[in-house]
Amino acid sequence: MKTFLATLLFALSAQAFNVTPYKTPLAFLATRYRAFHTCNCLYVMKMNQDYCTNYSKVEPQIFTINIDAANKSVSSGIMGMDFKPSVAKFVSDRVGCAIVNQ
Amino acid sequence: MSLAGFTMKNKIVLFVVSLFAVSALAGKTTTSLQQMEQIAFAPKTETDSLLLYSDKELLFERYNNGYTANNKHVAWSASKSMSSAIVGALVYAKQINIQRSICDYIPEAKNFNHCDLRTADFLSWSSGLIWNELYEDPSGDREQSSVGQLLYGDGIANTSNFIISHPSKTPGKNEWNYSTGDSTFVMALARAAVPVVEEQIFPWKYLFDPLGIDVTFGQDQAGNFGGGSSMYIRPRDFAKIGELYIARGMWNGKRIFSEAWVDYTNQRPEAFDLALYGNEVLYSKRSWWTLNPKIAQARRIPDTLIANGHWGQYLVIVPSLKMVLVRMGNNQDPTSNFELVDVIEKAVRAVEEHQAGGVK
Question: Residue B221 and residue A101: Cβ atoms within 8 Å?
């Protein structure tokens, strides 16, 4: 019943918006956001690591950060979960960082 | 200094004069400029930088939270106003006609029946495309945020295709709807309008290089610029954009865009409905903002042109005073608070005092 109601509500809200619901799950949005903004904060804004990992935090705070300084690349996964991390990599001074396909 | 040679009367005169001097110095701590600083950098304001110019003269500059003049700062949605400036430069260079159908530049728009729309509609946040401008509020349905999907989800392969695939809310009728999609699509149209060899360089060729601005401008995986959100700029460079509008499109003797473009920018979009938005602090202009005239009048603030970005990024231009105010910050903590109108008010007073010769 709960599933039915959820499906119904979902269908109704999608109709109200008159748009196909988006497909990318929140886990990807959150980890890409975190990787992307940490990367730009470090390599474009040139702020320090503590500042940047705090700047790019996402609620709930379960999204990890791993910095590969040698390659100017930042990845973000989910704490305690087997989730292939999202990666953002510095491209150039003009473009800044870009999200790398998973 | 010895006072031995002074008579008692002279000593009293000297004492009184000193008192005046001390009180004059003390009075200086309450100048409008210092009041502006106190408000802008009060606890919890999270101001990263504040700069104030009067007729190109730097009256005030302060950085905070580890930032310096050399650090670029994310402009977030203030990027939208700079994207508009780029289009203005392209119009002046006869590279784009904003009144033509978007299908003349991006034929894919035909597939979604959007050929009735013009670049001008997107510059005015009036495309009427359905768009959910939700940010990071955890209580919202972030998965169905059009902005989140644009930048980190369904849109990253090609933001232009993603935006134009959204249907019109009310086909044939424009509705004002502040949208990162509209401003990002403006840059996609601009990119489509320039020669292929300029696709990657046109923001710099037509706007940033002539002004000597070193900006970082993010792109999607197809090379479209993040015109609604993805610029990183140093505060002093951000101020140059303000000077360009005060000079009505001229920079060091070179015309970047026409005076008509400045006037066009300053118009309120036809679809910006005062019955709905009349009480907002900021009113929409075309890809820019201005203070609500009632607030401006009450605070004696002349007409403003404002670029306004997420978490407190502001470029405030007061053309009648040749005043430029830049404020960058990080107001992502909901308990932080930056009082924009108060700071603009004090900045205006400070510039007025300076121009009247009150502050040296």
Answer: yes
